[in-house]
Amino acid sequence: MRDKRGSGLGWTIFFSVICALYMYPIVMVVLNSLKQERFISTSTSFDLPTAETFAGMENYIKAIQSNGFLESLFYSLFITISSVALILLCCSMCAWYITRVNNWISKMVYMLCAFSMVVPFQMVMFTLSQTADKLDLNTPFNICIIYLGFGAGLAVFMFSGFMKSIPIEIEEAAMIDGCSPLQTYFKVVFPILKPTMISVGVLETMWVWNDYLLPTLVLDIKKYRTIPMLIQYFRGSYGRVEMGPMMACIVLTVLPVIVIYLLGQKHIIKGVLAGAVKG
Q1: What is the phi/psi pair of residue 35, to 5°?
Q2: Does some domain include residue 17?
Q3: pLDDT of residue 68
Q4: What single DSSP character describes residue 37?
Q5: How would you class 239 by CB atoms within 10 Å of its CB: exposed for 0-12, middle for 13-18, buried for 19 or more?
Q6: Domain containing 127: what range?
Q7: Which CATH number belongs to the domain containing residue 140 in this structure?
């Protein structure tokens, strides 16, 4: 018993140190976002804010009032909401078809979705950029179709695992009562999918919101910039990088994702465990 307790304490200390190392860069960004500009790039950048270095909310006000912040915020919100909604709807319906229709087509679709998680994005990013230009998918209003393709692998995999745990007799009873396939899905299957819906939604939201590479390759950076793209090209007067407002912009970008994850983390665990019951 003592050996188990000692081992548990050792693992707790080890993972606490790992967690502190991961949190250190975030803490430094938050601290520097509260400092005056001239103290960020000096030797005092690793110190806590003092009465001399403290800038209050000045950096955050400059970040919000900076050229393009609100526009970039709108693009990021629109892309994230539209992409995640499309992934949840299409991938859940696809997983329902895969688990309920047992033929070679459904098996092939499932294998293709699973295979898409293995293919690195770097292998297809150049051809993707050309294809997006030809199909007019290079605006924030239709880039969600591209995100659907890249997010379908994980979403279909998780939805399929959960679908296998749903008794098919429930759907058969609904069809006997006169429900069409769409009515059966939206009135019976869709409400049961809530744990996995939240899990997939949180994971996909974190991915799309923080994504930098795909929008940079597809969108015209002179017309459309998401929040991660804005941070990369954050400039002040005369092209000078303003570290204070940039740090504040990073904090404002990370904060919504952290809040969403904290609110949905228990649902993520439930959704993953629910999908692992059968299959």
Answers
A1: -105, 160
A2: no
A3: 80
A4: G
A5: exposed
A6: 60-275
A7: 1.10.3720.10
